[in-house]
Predict the structure.
Amino acid sequence: MNSTKPTSSKQPTDSTKASRRKFLKTGAAAAALGAVQTAAGQTPVAGTKSLKDLIAYGERSPYVTSIRVPVEERPSPDEFGLTFHVLTPLQDSVGIITPSSLHFIGTHRGSIVPDIDPKQHRLMIHGMVDRPLEFTMEDLKRFPSVSRIHFVECLGNRSKPGDKTVQETHGLTSCSEWTGVPLSLLLKECGVQKGASWIVSEGSEEVKGAGSIRLAKAMDVDRYYMTYNDYGHISKDKDVAALTFQWGPKSVIIFPSGGQKLPGPGIYQLTGLAWSGGGAVRRVEVSTDDGQTWKDAEIRGMAHPKAHTRFGMDWKWDGRECVLQSRCTDELGQVQPSRAELAKFFKVSPDYYKTHGTQGSDNTIQPWRVASDGSVSNAI
């Protein structure tokens, strides 16, 4: 074996070895501190997290600037110190999972963000059951749990002409991986009686907002069962009610979208999110000419049932003004409608939705106008 000879035959002394050991220890400590400085963006100082705290839990990178913002109609916290709707920054998302700290908050009638003590939390199931039961968190942990990726959306997630960005038009939806005990398992444990056909869920908040879901949806864990029925949101009109009991197919382009600006003509990676309460997303189409023609976009990754799904496509912008749109088709064959199609169905004026909210949950197509200077705005 060949080896390189030392340039000097002088052997290191004990003091030299000690100095090297001291240098290595000091250097290792400095490297460790440097790693913390890189992760946290600054050396911890008095009043901030200690090194021990940063190691135990950590902080997000200082280069990540995404933040939630309150809805324009009501700042959060308000003059009473309460939190209202807070919007997730969809325009900054790159996958389908929303970081927990950026998940939207939907609160009503001035209620505050839930502060749930697991030791005090209780889940009660009663009514038309053989055994009314109350579960603690420890009780629930004794049941087998599952993990699934699903979206959550507020019924108030509606695009309005005055909304400027996709965070404002669609920021009341987020997608997470959820782990817990299937509701159907707990219902079977209680023994649902014959003749029971509906479930009313009620939270512990002050206003006691309640939601109604069909029992059949709750018993099948493979079907959507999220809805919201608080203070008259569910209309007596069966057609409107049908649009609220299950979220229809929905999509939105997040790049380019309102408030963004293209530097000039060229090829861009157009991307967005699609989802549906009726199952998995099966198709997403994109129009670059205000809905005159449509082209299939690529579904990126797996399309999970009832979850945000990423779509994208190469798009060559020629520098001329245009309107971008996307529409989603889910596994049930339901197609996301335009506002004109919704107006025709409900027999109202095409301009009706410029001053009124849409019926049921709003899953209408969102148009973005790209001006000749590259600036993007809401085209509703």
Residues 1-12, 16-47, 222-232 have pLDDT under 50 and may be disordered.
